[in-house]
Amino acid sequence: MSASPSLRSTIVQKVVPTDTGSQAPAVSSDTPPTKKDKDPSRWADPIFQKQITCTPSYLHKTNMQFFGFAVDEAWVWQYYEQWRGISKKETKTIYIAVFTSVIWRLHHILGIPDLHMESVMIDDKTPANATVYEEKSGLKYVTIISMCPFAIEEWARRPTLGQVMALKELVGGEPRWWVDIHPVGYYN
């Protein structure tokens, strides 16, 4: 799916796979900032007006579900290094803080109101290149960039189709519904 010119102008930085076959992505600057990037009227494009309406194909009985993209650790570090100009070797920042700052950056670039990092269950649709983590209990999971939870009270904060497409341009892959690794009561 090719993005419209107004959509492409919202993407300030882009990370794309390298041609060398390595797993670490390379930085592409084919979408440099323009005057329009500072202009809030870019959101007037109709694609940024309608919220997404997708729902999970099934509802999990005990765990929250989130709509978002799986991202691997290499992509997060690459984006952070490009944005901040600080390499992974030069920083003493822990990964979770780096991921959180990338989420903050994407929230401000794209205007997605409910952008979060979530830990979700691994299933047969999990991308092969996703970074797998393990809790002390042995539970394995991946992290995603979540755009919205499946909760009726949060539906007003769902992203627009344009915002989803812009995030897809940046992270690659397809967004989908994921299941949280813990039941809802776990966090209380």
Write the element-wise H/E pattern from the N-terminal end onward: HEEEHHEEEHE
Helical proportion?
10-25%
The largest β sheet comes out as: 5 strands, antiparallel
Overall mean pLDDT stands at: 74
Give the domain tally: 1
- Amino- and carboxy-terminal Cα gap: 41 Å
Q: Low-confidence segments, ≥5 residues, pLDDT <50? A: 1-39
* CA-based shape: globular
Q: SS-based structural class?
A: alpha+beta
Taking all Cα atoms into account, the compactness measure Rg is: 17 Å
Number of helices: 4
The total of beta strands comes to 7
- Approximately what portion of the residues adopt beta-strand conformation? 15-25%
Biased composition (Basic and acidic residues): 33-42
Region (Disordered): 1-42
Biased composition (Polar residues): 1-12, 19-32
Verbal overview:
The chain has 188 residues and is an alpha+beta fold. The protein has one domain. It has 4 helices and 7 strands; from the N terminus they run H-E-E-E-H-H-E-E-E-H-E. Strands 3, 4, 5, 6 and 7 form a 5-stranded antiparallel beta sheet that branches. Strands 1-2 form a two-stranded antiparallel ribbon. The longest helix has 16 residues. It is globular. It starts with a helix and ends in a 5-residue tail after the last strand. The N terminus is likely disordered.
